[in-house]
Amino acid sequence: MRITIKDLSHSFVTPEGKMKKVLSHVDFDDDISTLSLIGPSGGGKSTLLRILAGLIKPTEGEFFIECKKTGFVFQQNGLFKHWTGLENITIPLEKVHKYTHTEALERAEELLDRFGLLKDAYKKPSELSGGQQQRIAIARAVAPRPNLLFLDEPTSALDPEYTVEVLDMINELKDEGLNFIIVTHEMGFAKLACEKTGFLSETVLSQGARLIEVGKSREIFEHPKEPIVKNFLDKILMW
Amino acid sequence: MVLRSQLIKKVVNALLASLLVLALVWISVLRLGVSFDFSFIIQFKSRILQGFLMTVALSLIGFVLSLFIGIIAALWQNGKILFLKYISSIYINFIRGTPLIMQIYLFYYIIGTAWGVNNRFVSGVLILSVFEGAYIAEIIRAGIQGLAPTQVEAARAVGFTKSQTIKLVIIPQLIARILPALVGQFSSIIKDSSLLSIIAVIELTQTIREISALNFRLFESYLFLGVLYLCLTIPLAIVGKIFEKQFSFET
Ligand SMILES: Nc1ncnc2c1ncn2[C@@H]1O[C@H](COP(=O)(O)OP(=O)(O)OP(=O)(O)O)[C@@H](O)[C@H]1O
Ligand SMILES: [Mg+2]
Fold it and tell me: Residue B158 is part of a domain; what is its CATH number?
Protein backbone atom coordinates (compact mmCIF):
# COMPACT_ATOMS: atom_id res chain seq x y z
CA MET A 1 0.00 0.00 0.00
CA ARG A 2 1.43 3.31 -1.12
CA ILE A 3 1.76 6.04 1.45
CA THR A 4 3.04 9.47 0.46
CA ILE A 5 3.66 12.31 2.87
CA LYS A 6 4.83 15.62 1.46
CA ASP A 7 6.45 18.30 3.55
CA LEU A 8 3.99 17.81 6.40
CA SER A 9 4.23 20.03 9.50
CA HIS A 10 2.00 20.40 12.51
CA SER A 11 1.84 22.91 15.34
CA PHE A 12 -0.38 22.95 18.41
CA VAL A 13 -1.57 26.02 20.21
CA THR A 14 -0.48 25.57 23.82
CA PRO A 15 -2.76 26.60 26.69
CA GLU A 16 -0.60 29.72 27.07
CA GLY A 17 -1.48 30.66 23.51
CA LYS A 18 1.93 29.97 21.99
CA MET A 19 2.53 27.87 18.91
CA LYS A 20 4.38 24.63 19.53
CA LYS A 21 5.80 22.92 16.49
CA VAL A 22 5.50 19.15 16.87
CA LEU A 23 6.10 17.88 13.34
CA SER A 24 8.44 19.64 10.99
CA HIS A 25 8.64 18.85 7.27
CA VAL A 26 7.92 15.14 7.43
CA ASP A 27 8.49 13.40 4.09
CA PHE A 28 7.70 9.82 3.24
CA ASP A 29 7.04 7.85 0.08
CA ASP A 30 6.98 4.08 0.23
CA ASP A 31 4.97 0.91 -0.14
CA ILE A 32 4.15 -0.60 3.21
CA SER A 33 2.16 -3.46 4.60
CA THR A 34 3.09 -3.16 8.26
CA LEU A 35 4.95 -0.20 9.67
CA SER A 36 5.98 0.58 13.21
CA LEU A 37 6.71 4.11 14.34
CA ILE A 38 9.20 4.42 17.15
CA GLY A 39 10.96 7.31 18.79
CA PRO A 40 11.35 9.23 22.01
CA SER A 41 8.35 10.22 24.09
CA GLY A 42 6.76 13.48 23.03
CA GLY A 43 8.36 13.13 19.62
CA GLY A 44 5.08 13.51 17.78
CA LYS A 45 4.31 9.87 16.95
CA SER A 46 0.71 10.06 18.09
CA THR A 47 0.26 13.34 16.29
CA LEU A 48 1.51 11.92 13.01
CA LEU A 49 -0.71 8.86 13.39
CA ARG A 50 -3.77 10.94 14.12
CA ILE A 51 -3.08 13.11 11.09
CA LEU A 52 -2.71 10.09 8.82
CA ALA A 53 -5.94 8.66 10.21
CA GLY A 54 -7.75 11.90 9.48
CA LEU A 55 -8.51 12.65 13.12
CA ILE A 56 -6.74 16.00 12.98
CA LYS A 57 -5.77 18.24 10.08
CA PRO A 58 -2.08 19.05 9.61
CA THR A 59 -1.24 22.75 9.68
CA GLU A 60 0.94 22.41 6.59
CA GLY A 61 1.69 19.89 3.90
CA GLU A 62 -0.27 16.97 2.51
CA PHE A 63 -0.41 13.20 2.43
CA PHE A 64 -1.97 10.45 0.34
CA ILE A 65 -2.91 6.97 1.40
CA GLU A 66 -4.05 4.59 -1.24
CA CYS A 67 -6.94 3.08 0.66
CA LYS A 68 -10.58 3.71 1.35
CA LYS A 69 -11.30 2.37 4.77
CA THR A 70 -9.19 2.71 7.89
CA GLY A 71 -9.57 1.83 11.56
CA PHE A 72 -8.03 3.32 14.67
CA VAL A 73 -7.09 1.86 18.05
CA PHE A 74 -6.29 4.24 20.91
CA GLN A 75 -3.82 3.74 23.70
CA GLN A 76 -6.69 3.40 26.18
CA ASN A 77 -10.29 4.43 26.87
CA GLY A 78 -11.15 4.28 23.19
CA LEU A 79 -14.29 2.22 23.78
CA PHE A 80 -17.56 4.03 24.32
CA LYS A 81 -18.16 3.82 28.03
CA HIS A 82 -21.93 3.67 27.91
CA TRP A 83 -22.08 0.69 25.58
CA THR A 84 -21.26 -2.97 26.05
CA GLY A 85 -18.36 -4.49 24.16
CA LEU A 86 -20.81 -5.91 21.66
CA GLU A 87 -22.59 -2.59 21.13
CA ASN A 88 -19.25 -0.89 20.66
CA ILE A 89 -18.80 -3.09 17.60
CA THR A 90 -22.34 -3.34 16.26
CA ILE A 91 -23.52 0.26 16.54
CA PRO A 92 -20.75 1.76 14.36
CA LEU A 93 -21.31 -1.07 11.84
CA GLU A 94 -24.99 -0.16 11.65
CA LYS A 95 -24.72 3.61 11.79
CA VAL A 96 -21.59 4.16 9.72
CA HIS A 97 -21.25 1.11 7.50
CA LYS A 98 -24.98 0.53 6.99
CA TYR A 99 -25.04 -3.08 8.13
CA THR A 100 -28.44 -4.41 9.18
CA HIS A 101 -28.71 -5.23 12.86
CA THR A 102 -28.46 -8.95 12.15
CA GLU A 103 -25.42 -8.56 9.91
CA ALA A 104 -23.71 -6.37 12.50
CA LEU A 105 -24.46 -8.88 15.24
CA GLU A 106 -23.12 -11.75 13.17
CA ARG A 107 -19.93 -9.92 12.32
CA ALA A 108 -19.36 -8.85 15.94
CA GLU A 109 -19.99 -12.31 17.32
CA GLU A 110 -17.73 -13.88 14.74
CA LEU A 111 -14.86 -11.61 15.81
CA LEU A 112 -15.52 -11.83 19.53
CA ASP A 113 -15.79 -15.58 19.34
CA ARG A 114 -12.59 -15.87 17.40
CA PHE A 115 -10.61 -13.90 19.93
CA GLY A 116 -12.20 -15.55 22.93
CA LEU A 117 -14.14 -12.46 23.96
CA LEU A 118 -17.68 -13.73 23.63
CA LYS A 119 -18.19 -14.06 27.36
CA ASP A 120 -17.32 -10.39 27.79
CA ALA A 121 -19.58 -9.20 25.00
CA TYR A 122 -22.30 -7.91 27.28
CA LYS A 123 -20.07 -6.10 29.73
CA LYS A 124 -19.39 -2.37 29.72
CA PRO A 125 -15.75 -1.26 29.42
CA SER A 126 -15.60 -0.43 33.13
CA GLU A 127 -16.21 -4.11 33.89
CA LEU A 128 -13.42 -5.33 31.61
CA SER A 129 -9.69 -5.64 32.13
CA GLY A 130 -7.43 -3.32 30.16
CA GLY A 131 -6.39 -6.20 27.94
CA GLN A 132 -9.97 -7.20 27.20
CA GLN A 133 -10.83 -3.58 26.44
CA GLN A 134 -7.98 -3.27 23.99
CA ARG A 135 -8.82 -6.51 22.23
CA ILE A 136 -12.44 -5.42 21.86
CA ALA A 137 -11.19 -2.05 20.60
CA ILE A 138 -9.15 -3.89 17.96
CA ALA A 139 -12.14 -6.08 17.10
CA ARG A 140 -14.23 -2.92 16.70
CA ALA A 141 -11.60 -1.36 14.45
CA VAL A 142 -11.28 -4.39 12.16
CA ALA A 143 -15.00 -5.24 12.10
CA PRO A 144 -15.80 -3.15 9.01
CA ARG A 145 -12.86 -4.84 7.23
CA PRO A 146 -10.59 -1.80 6.85
CA ASN A 147 -7.63 -1.89 4.48
CA LEU A 148 -5.41 -0.20 6.99
CA LEU A 149 -5.40 -0.12 10.76
CA PHE A 150 -3.77 2.57 12.92
CA LEU A 151 -2.71 1.58 16.41
CA ASP A 152 -1.40 4.12 18.91
CA GLU A 153 0.54 2.30 21.60
CA PRO A 154 -2.21 -0.25 22.04
CA THR A 155 -0.37 -2.02 24.85
CA SER A 156 1.44 0.68 26.75
CA ALA A 157 -1.23 0.93 29.44
CA LEU A 158 -1.27 -2.84 30.00
CA ASP A 159 0.40 -5.36 32.28
CA PRO A 160 2.86 -7.69 30.51
CA GLU A 161 0.49 -10.66 30.40
CA TYR A 162 -2.20 -8.58 28.70
CA THR A 163 0.37 -7.03 26.38
CA VAL A 164 1.11 -10.45 24.98
CA GLU A 165 -2.50 -11.30 24.25
CA VAL A 166 -3.04 -8.01 22.45
CA LEU A 167 0.14 -8.29 20.40
CA ASP A 168 -0.80 -11.90 19.53
CA MET A 169 -4.11 -10.68 18.23
CA ILE A 170 -2.50 -8.02 16.06
CA ASN A 171 -0.03 -10.55 14.72
CA GLU A 172 -2.81 -12.96 13.86
CA LEU A 173 -4.64 -10.25 11.95
CA LYS A 174 -1.45 -9.43 10.13
CA ASP A 175 -1.10 -13.03 9.00
CA GLU A 176 -4.51 -12.64 7.40
CA GLY A 177 -3.25 -9.76 5.36
CA LEU A 178 -4.25 -6.75 7.44
CA ASN A 179 -2.06 -3.70 6.87
CA PHE A 180 -1.27 -1.57 9.84
CA ILE A 181 0.77 1.32 11.17
CA ILE A 182 1.55 0.96 14.85
CA VAL A 183 3.16 3.37 17.28
CA THR A 184 4.82 1.22 19.88
CA HIS A 185 7.39 0.94 22.62
CA GLU A 186 7.46 -2.84 22.18
CA MET A 187 10.74 -3.05 20.32
CA GLY A 188 10.52 -6.84 19.93
CA PHE A 189 7.20 -6.50 18.20
CA ALA A 190 8.42 -3.67 15.98
CA LYS A 191 11.46 -5.67 14.96
CA LEU A 192 9.90 -9.08 14.47
CA ALA A 193 6.30 -8.45 13.50
CA CYS A 194 6.52 -5.28 11.44
CA GLU A 195 7.90 -5.26 7.94
CA LYS A 196 9.21 -1.72 8.20
CA THR A 197 10.06 0.74 10.96
CA GLY A 198 10.26 4.49 11.01
CA PHE A 199 12.07 6.54 13.61
CA LEU A 200 10.47 9.85 14.46
CA SER A 201 12.32 12.44 16.51
CA GLU A 202 13.44 16.02 16.80
CA THR A 203 17.00 16.79 15.84
CA VAL A 204 19.34 19.32 17.35
CA LEU A 205 18.78 21.52 14.35
CA SER A 206 15.03 21.36 13.97
CA GLN A 207 12.21 22.28 16.22
CA GLY A 208 9.57 19.62 15.61
CA ALA A 209 10.11 16.01 14.71
CA ARG A 210 10.98 14.49 11.36
CA LEU A 211 11.16 10.93 10.11
CA ILE A 212 14.87 10.47 10.63
CA GLU A 213 15.17 6.96 9.25
CA VAL A 214 12.79 4.50 7.65
CA GLY A 215 13.58 1.02 6.42
CA LYS A 216 13.23 -2.70 6.89
CA SER A 217 12.74 -3.35 10.60
CA ARG A 218 15.61 -5.78 10.88
CA GLU A 219 18.02 -3.35 9.30
CA ILE A 220 16.96 -0.44 11.45
CA PHE A 221 17.33 -2.43 14.62
CA GLU A 222 20.54 -4.23 13.66
CA HIS A 223 22.33 -1.63 11.57
CA PRO A 224 20.85 1.82 12.11
CA LYS A 225 22.47 4.38 9.83
CA GLU A 226 21.73 7.55 11.77
CA PRO A 227 23.67 8.06 15.01
CA ILE A 228 20.60 9.44 16.77
CA VAL A 229 18.70 6.22 16.02
CA LYS A 230 21.61 4.12 17.18
CA ASN A 231 21.80 6.09 20.41
CA PHE A 232 18.10 5.67 21.05
CA LEU A 233 18.19 1.93 20.41
CA ASP A 234 21.31 1.40 22.50
CA LYS A 235 19.69 3.16 25.39
CA ILE A 236 16.34 1.47 25.09
CA LEU A 237 17.68 -2.04 24.45
CA MET A 238 20.18 -1.94 27.29
CA TRP A 239 17.77 -3.69 29.64
CA MET B 1 -21.85 -16.37 55.04
CA VAL B 2 -19.84 -13.20 54.99
CA LEU B 3 -22.71 -11.47 53.25
CA ARG B 4 -25.16 -12.64 55.86
CA SER B 5 -23.14 -11.40 58.80
CA GLN B 6 -22.70 -8.09 57.03
CA LEU B 7 -26.43 -7.85 56.57
CA ILE B 8 -27.05 -8.52 60.25
CA LYS B 9 -24.50 -5.87 61.13
CA LYS B 10 -26.24 -3.36 58.89
CA VAL B 11 -29.70 -4.09 60.28
CA VAL B 12 -28.54 -3.89 63.88
CA ASN B 13 -26.80 -0.59 63.33
CA ALA B 14 -29.73 0.88 61.44
CA LEU B 15 -32.03 -0.08 64.28
CA LEU B 16 -29.71 1.41 66.87
CA ALA B 17 -29.42 4.66 64.95
CA SER B 18 -33.19 4.95 64.51
CA LEU B 19 -33.75 4.18 68.18
CA LEU B 20 -31.34 6.89 69.25
CA VAL B 21 -33.02 9.49 67.06
CA LEU B 22 -36.47 8.47 68.25
CA ALA B 23 -35.35 8.56 71.86
CA LEU B 24 -33.97 12.08 71.42
CA VAL B 25 -37.23 13.27 69.89
CA TRP B 26 -39.18 11.51 72.61
CA ILE B 27 -37.20 13.11 75.41
CA SER B 28 -37.57 16.54 73.81
CA VAL B 29 -41.30 16.02 73.56
CA LEU B 30 -41.50 14.94 77.21
CA ARG B 31 -39.60 18.03 78.28
CA LEU B 32 -42.03 20.17 76.35
CA GLY B 33 -44.74 18.54 78.37
CA VAL B 34 -47.19 18.49 75.52
CA SER B 35 -49.64 15.78 74.68
CA PHE B 36 -50.11 14.69 71.12
CA ASP B 37 -53.14 15.62 69.19
CA PHE B 38 -53.13 14.81 65.53
CA SER B 39 -56.83 15.17 65.04
CA PHE B 40 -56.30 18.27 62.93
CA ILE B 41 -55.14 16.03 60.10
CA ILE B 42 -58.62 14.60 59.72
CA GLN B 43 -60.23 17.93 60.38
CA PHE B 44 -58.27 19.77 57.70
CA LYS B 45 -57.59 16.86 55.40
CA SER B 46 -58.94 18.49 52.26
CA ARG B 47 -56.91 21.66 52.82
CA ILE B 48 -53.80 19.67 53.56
CA LEU B 49 -54.33 17.57 50.46
CA GLN B 50 -54.80 20.72 48.42
CA GLY B 51 -51.59 22.22 49.79
CA PHE B 52 -49.76 18.98 49.14
CA LEU B 53 -50.95 18.88 45.55
CA MET B 54 -50.04 22.52 45.15
CA THR B 55 -46.49 21.78 46.29
CA VAL B 56 -46.31 18.84 43.88
CA ALA B 57 -47.60 20.99 41.02
CA LEU B 58 -45.24 23.89 41.85
CA SER B 59 -42.28 21.53 41.99
CA LEU B 60 -43.12 19.61 38.84
CA ILE B 61 -43.74 22.67 36.71
CA GLY B 62 -40.80 24.41 38.36
CA PHE B 63 -38.55 21.45 37.57
CA VAL B 64 -39.52 21.35 33.91
CA LEU B 65 -39.10 25.11 33.51
CA SER B 66 -35.84 25.25 35.40
CA LEU B 67 -34.50 22.38 33.33
CA PHE B 68 -35.32 24.39 30.25
CA ILE B 69 -33.68 27.54 31.65
CA GLY B 70 -30.71 25.56 32.92
CA ILE B 71 -30.05 23.89 29.57
CA ILE B 72 -30.14 27.23 27.75
CA ALA B 73 -27.90 28.92 30.31
CA ALA B 74 -25.43 26.04 30.18
CA LEU B 75 -25.37 26.06 26.39
CA TRP B 76 -24.82 29.80 26.34
CA GLN B 77 -22.06 29.52 28.87
CA ASN B 78 -20.32 26.78 26.91
CA GLY B 79 -20.97 28.44 23.60
CA LYS B 80 -18.86 30.78 21.53
CA ILE B 81 -21.06 33.88 21.53
CA LEU B 82 -19.43 36.09 24.10
CA PHE B 83 -22.50 38.26 24.69
CA LEU B 84 -24.67 35.28 25.62
CA LYS B 85 -21.86 33.83 27.67
CA TYR B 86 -21.78 36.96 29.84
CA ILE B 87 -25.55 37.09 30.17
CA SER B 88 -25.52 33.52 31.37
CA SER B 89 -22.61 34.23 33.68
CA ILE B 90 -24.33 37.21 35.29
CA TYR B 91 -27.50 35.21 35.74
CA ILE B 92 -25.83 32.18 37.30
CA ASN B 93 -23.62 34.19 39.63
CA PHE B 94 -26.36 36.50 40.80
CA ILE B 95 -28.80 33.69 41.51
CA ARG B 96 -26.28 31.43 43.19
CA GLY B 97 -24.80 34.27 45.16
CA THR B 98 -27.98 35.57 46.78
CA PRO B 99 -30.52 33.88 49.04
CA LEU B 100 -33.77 32.62 47.63
CA ILE B 101 -35.84 34.59 50.13
CA MET B 102 -34.38 37.87 48.89
CA GLN B 103 -35.02 36.86 45.27
CA ILE B 104 -38.60 35.96 46.07
CA TYR B 105 -39.33 39.37 47.58
CA LEU B 106 -37.46 41.23 44.85
CA PHE B 107 -38.83 39.34 41.87
CA TYR B 108 -42.30 39.20 43.27
CA TYR B 109 -42.22 42.96 43.54
CA ILE B 110 -40.75 43.38 40.06
CA ILE B 111 -42.86 40.76 38.33
CA GLY B 112 -45.97 41.90 40.13
CA THR B 113 -45.66 45.63 39.66
CA ALA B 114 -43.61 46.07 36.51
CA TRP B 115 -44.96 43.14 34.50
CA GLY B 116 -48.39 43.00 35.98
CA VAL B 117 -48.37 39.31 36.89
CA ASN B 118 -50.77 39.13 39.78
CA ASN B 119 -51.29 35.41 39.91
CA ARG B 120 -49.30 34.18 42.90
CA PHE B 121 -48.96 30.68 41.55
CA VAL B 122 -47.54 31.89 38.24
CA SER B 123 -45.14 34.29 39.97
CA GLY B 124 -44.13 31.58 42.38
CA VAL B 125 -43.39 29.06 39.68
CA LEU B 126 -41.43 31.64 37.67
CA ILE B 127 -39.33 32.72 40.63
CA LEU B 128 -38.64 29.15 41.64
CA SER B 129 -37.67 28.17 38.09
CA VAL B 130 -35.34 31.10 37.63
CA PHE B 131 -33.68 30.24 40.94
CA GLU B 132 -33.28 26.50 40.34
CA GLY B 133 -32.34 27.02 36.69
CA ALA B 134 -29.02 28.52 37.76
CA TYR B 135 -28.19 25.44 39.79
CA ILE B 136 -29.23 23.13 36.98
CA ALA B 137 -27.07 25.14 34.58
CA GLU B 138 -24.11 24.45 36.86
CA ILE B 139 -24.90 20.74 36.99
CA ILE B 140 -25.05 20.59 33.21
CA ARG B 141 -21.92 22.70 32.78
CA ALA B 142 -19.97 20.42 35.10
CA GLY B 143 -21.35 17.43 33.23
CA ILE B 144 -20.21 18.78 29.88
CA GLN B 145 -16.80 19.61 31.26
CA GLY B 146 -16.41 16.13 32.69
CA LEU B 147 -17.03 14.40 29.39
CA ALA B 148 -13.85 12.64 28.34
CA PRO B 149 -12.41 14.17 25.15
CA THR B 150 -11.22 10.70 24.17
CA GLN B 151 -14.84 9.67 23.67
CA VAL B 152 -15.38 12.35 21.05
CA GLU B 153 -12.16 11.41 19.34
CA ALA B 154 -13.22 7.76 19.38
CA ALA B 155 -16.51 8.78 17.77
CA ARG B 156 -14.58 10.44 15.01
CA ALA B 157 -12.33 7.41 14.65
CA VAL B 158 -15.22 5.00 14.10
CA GLY B 159 -16.66 7.38 11.54
CA PHE B 160 -19.64 8.93 13.30
CA THR B 161 -20.82 12.22 11.86
CA LYS B 162 -21.09 15.25 14.12
CA SER B 163 -24.79 14.80 14.71
CA GLN B 164 -24.33 11.07 15.33
CA THR B 165 -21.63 11.89 17.85
CA ILE B 166 -23.95 14.24 19.70
CA LYS B 167 -26.92 11.90 19.56
CA LEU B 168 -25.21 8.59 20.20
CA VAL B 169 -22.28 9.51 22.43
CA ILE B 170 -22.39 12.96 24.01
CA ILE B 171 -26.03 13.18 25.07
CA PRO B 172 -26.31 9.66 26.53
CA GLN B 173 -23.09 10.11 28.48
CA LEU B 174 -24.10 13.57 29.62
CA ILE B 175 -27.46 12.34 30.84
CA ALA B 176 -25.80 9.50 32.68
CA ARG B 177 -23.47 11.95 34.37
CA ILE B 178 -26.07 14.51 35.41
CA LEU B 179 -29.19 12.46 36.07
CA PRO B 180 -28.38 11.66 39.73
CA ALA B 181 -27.63 15.32 40.43
CA LEU B 182 -30.79 16.43 38.64
CA VAL B 183 -32.86 14.14 40.81
CA GLY B 184 -31.21 15.72 43.84
CA GLN B 185 -32.05 19.15 42.47
CA PHE B 186 -35.67 18.13 42.04
CA SER B 187 -35.66 17.27 45.70
CA SER B 188 -34.27 20.74 46.46
CA ILE B 189 -37.01 22.33 44.39
CA ILE B 190 -39.64 20.58 46.48
CA LYS B 191 -38.06 21.88 49.68
CA ASP B 192 -37.33 25.36 48.29
CA SER B 193 -40.92 25.75 47.12
CA SER B 194 -41.84 26.00 50.81
CA LEU B 195 -40.31 29.48 50.81
CA LEU B 196 -42.99 30.65 48.41
CA SER B 197 -45.23 30.67 51.46
CA ILE B 198 -43.83 34.13 52.17
CA ILE B 199 -45.66 35.53 49.18
CA ALA B 200 -48.73 33.60 50.30
CA VAL B 201 -48.74 30.88 47.69
CA ILE B 202 -50.96 28.36 49.44
CA GLU B 203 -48.68 25.39 49.10
CA LEU B 204 -48.02 22.76 51.72
CA THR B 205 -46.00 24.83 54.17
CA GLN B 206 -48.34 27.80 53.97
CA THR B 207 -51.33 25.50 54.51
CA ILE B 208 -49.76 24.04 57.64
CA ARG B 209 -48.81 27.51 58.87
CA GLU B 210 -52.38 28.63 58.54
CA ILE B 211 -53.69 25.53 60.27
CA SER B 212 -51.25 25.80 63.15
CA ALA B 213 -52.22 29.44 63.57
CA LEU B 214 -55.75 28.28 64.10
CA ASN B 215 -55.19 25.38 66.48
CA PHE B 216 -51.79 26.22 68.06
CA ARG B 217 -50.68 22.59 67.51
CA LEU B 218 -47.26 23.77 66.41
CA PHE B 219 -45.28 20.66 67.21
CA GLU B 220 -47.66 18.16 65.63
CA SER B 221 -48.27 20.39 62.61
CA TYR B 222 -44.64 20.83 61.73
CA LEU B 223 -43.80 17.22 62.50
CA PHE B 224 -46.51 16.19 60.10
CA LEU B 225 -45.27 18.73 57.57
CA GLY B 226 -41.83 17.14 57.76
CA VAL B 227 -43.32 13.70 57.19
CA LEU B 228 -45.18 14.93 54.13
CA TYR B 229 -42.01 16.41 52.61
CA LEU B 230 -40.18 13.17 53.34
CA CYS B 231 -42.91 11.29 51.47
CA LEU B 232 -41.79 13.22 48.42
CA THR B 233 -38.05 13.43 48.94
CA ILE B 234 -37.22 9.92 50.17
CA PRO B 235 -38.51 8.20 47.02
CA LEU B 236 -36.50 10.70 45.00
CA ALA B 237 -33.39 9.93 47.01
CA ILE B 238 -33.91 6.24 46.27
CA VAL B 239 -34.38 6.95 42.57
CA GLY B 240 -31.19 9.03 42.63
CA LYS B 241 -29.28 6.13 44.18
CA ILE B 242 -30.62 3.75 41.57
CA PHE B 243 -29.52 6.07 38.77
CA GLU B 244 -26.11 6.40 40.36
CA LYS B 245 -25.70 2.62 40.36
CA GLN B 246 -27.08 2.21 36.90
CA PHE B 247 -24.72 4.76 35.43
CA SER B 248 -21.65 3.77 37.40
CA PHE B 249 -19.86 2.94 34.13
CA GLU B 250 -18.80 6.57 34.13
CA THR B 251 -16.18 6.11 36.80
N1 LIG C 1 -3.84 18.66 21.73
C2 LIG C 1 -2.60 19.12 22.00
N3 LIG C 1 -2.42 20.41 22.36
C4 LIG C 1 -1.20 20.90 22.62
N5 LIG C 1 -0.07 20.15 22.58
C6 LIG C 1 -0.17 18.86 22.25
C7 LIG C 1 -1.45 18.27 21.96
N8 LIG C 1 -1.25 16.96 21.68
C9 LIG C 1 0.07 16.76 21.79
N10 LIG C 1 0.73 17.88 22.12
C11 LIG C 1 2.19 18.02 22.30
O12 LIG C 1 2.80 17.59 21.14
C13 LIG C 1 4.00 16.89 21.43
C14 LIG C 1 3.98 15.55 20.74
O15 LIG C 1 2.94 14.79 21.27
P16 LIG C 1 2.63 13.31 20.78
O17 LIG C 1 1.52 12.82 21.63
O18 LIG C 1 2.41 13.29 19.33
O19 LIG C 1 3.99 12.57 21.13
P20 LIG C 1 4.31 11.01 21.17
O21 LIG C 1 5.50 10.79 20.35
O22 LIG C 1 3.09 10.25 20.83
O23 LIG C 1 4.70 10.79 22.69
P24 LIG C 1 4.40 9.54 23.64
O25 LIG C 1 5.40 8.50 23.30
O26 LIG C 1 4.62 10.10 25.00
O27 LIG C 1 2.99 9.13 23.39
C28 LIG C 1 4.07 16.78 22.94
O29 LIG C 1 5.00 17.73 23.39
C30 LIG C 1 2.70 17.15 23.41
O31 LIG C 1 2.76 17.83 24.62
MG1 LIG D 1 1.70 9.02 21.92
Answer: 1.10.3720.10
Whether residue B251 lies within 8 A of chain A, CB to CB, comes out as yes
Assembly ipTM: 0.87
Question: Across residues A193-203, what is the average pLDDT?
Answer: 91
Is the distance from the beta carbon of residue A79 to the nearest atom of ligand 1 less than 6 Å? no
Domain assignment present for B152 = yes
- What span, in angstroms and rounded, lies between the C-alpha atoms of A186 and A199? 14
pLDDT over 70 at B154, yes or no:
yes
Number of structural domains found in chain B? 1
| Distance from the first to the final alpha carbon of chain A | 35
- Chain A residues close to B146, C-beta within 8 Å: none
Segment A149-170, tens digit of pLDDT: 999 998 888 888 888 888 888 8
Chain B residues 148-167 within an 8 A CB cutoff of chain A: 148, 150-151, 153-160, 164
Boundaries of domain holding B81 = 53-250
Structural domains in chain A plus CATH codes: 28-56+69-236 (3.40.50.300)
Q: Is the CB of A201 under 6 A from ligand 1?
A: no
Position B217 in a domain: yes
How many angstroms separate the alpha carbon of residue A229 from the centre of ligand 1?
20
CB contact under 8 A, B158 and A96: yes
